[in-house]
Design a protein that fits this description.
This protein is an alpha/beta fold. The protein is 40% helix and 20% strand. Strands 2-1-3-4-5 form a 5-stranded parallel beta sheet, with helices on both faces.
Length: 120
């Protein structure tokens, strides 16, 4: 799956991790929407420019991204979670791919390629 030009929403509240995700995805030719650190900001970004896929940190400084995950699912946008605590993911999202922090660049790129390949 060619990821060049794919628009990826990134939601991550840790500044260095968000920057690393942005640099990694842009380095692979993707267009990063965000990153957003707060749920309201992420929802606004997603509504303004529907992404091709999303990378969501489950737990944010305030709340979780689970409401955004439900919204993305209703829009048909594939997403994955990246987290150090997969127990926060509810049963409604049990089938969503999860990358456990820390993960390698190849894992992230491979997971996004698989997500977008299934979308066809």
């Amino acid at each position: 799956m060619d990821l060049v030009g794919k628009r990826i929403l990134v939601v991550e509240d840790e500044g260095l991790v968000a920057l690393d995700l942005k640099v990694t995805l842009e380095g692979a030719g993707m267009i990063v929407i965000g990153p957003a650190a707060r749920l309201p900001d992420a929802l606004l970004l997603a509504e303004k420019s529907l992404p091709d896929a999303a990378v969501l940190d489950v737990r944010l400084e305030v709340g979780t991204t689970l409401p955004l995950a439900a919204w993305l699912a209703r829009q048909g946008v594939p997403f994955l979670f990246q987290t150090s605590d997969p127990n926060l993911i509810d049963a409604a999202h049990a089938a969503v791919p999860v990358l456990r922090k820390p993960f390698r660049t190849e894992q992230l790129i491979g997971a996004l390629a698989a997500l977008l390949g299934r979308r066809r």
